[in-house]
Amino acid sequence: MHALILEHNSWIILTIEDVLREIGFSSFAVASDPMTANSAAMVEAPDLIVCGTWYRNLDAIESIRTIYADRTTPMVFLSTSPGEVLDVLPQAVVVAKPFLDQALKEGVVRAMSEACSQALKRLTGLRISGQGDRMNQALEPRRAAGAGS
Fold first, then answer.
1. Is cis: bond before 98, omega within 30 of 0?
2. pLDDT in tens for each of the 149 residues of the chain?
3. Is 100 helix (H, G, I), strand (E, B) or coil?
4. Which residues, at least 6 apart from 115, have a Cβ–Cβ distance to it below 8 Å?
5. Quick check: 22 and 109 in contact, CB under 8 A?
6. CA 124 to CA 102: how far, in whole Å?
7. pTM score
């Protein structure tokens, strides 16, 4: 799997790469600003984006919102001020800096799970929580037909 890391500190980048390797990622693109991250995502679509740098200027936030709005690519934000990220992106997966390896792993799992859930909702048009009821309703005529045999 391929991850895009948006971070300017090389030690943090190496730590993120090490943690992601442990959970199956094998290639990485690194960007130090949102514009470069957008370009890198166009060259090779990432399976995950880890945004380790939170930008307070409006252009950078809008750029990150553009990436995040897609929601088909899981994103994890690393921040010393998680509340600032959540104020702008309330549904974001945020891991507080400094972070433990396990916290980053859990954040990645949560982000990937939520992205899968969102993708399923878009593909099927079903509410995930009500999926079982709809499937049962769809199967009911088949069950009734089979019961009379």
1. yes
2. 999 999 989 999 999 999 999 999 999 999 988 778 888 888 998 999 998 876 655 555 566 666 656 557 888 999 988 888 888 888 889 999 999 999 999 999 999 988 888 777 777 765 545 545 554 455 454 444 555 44
3. coil
4. 71, 72, 73, 74
5. no
6. 33
7. 0.74
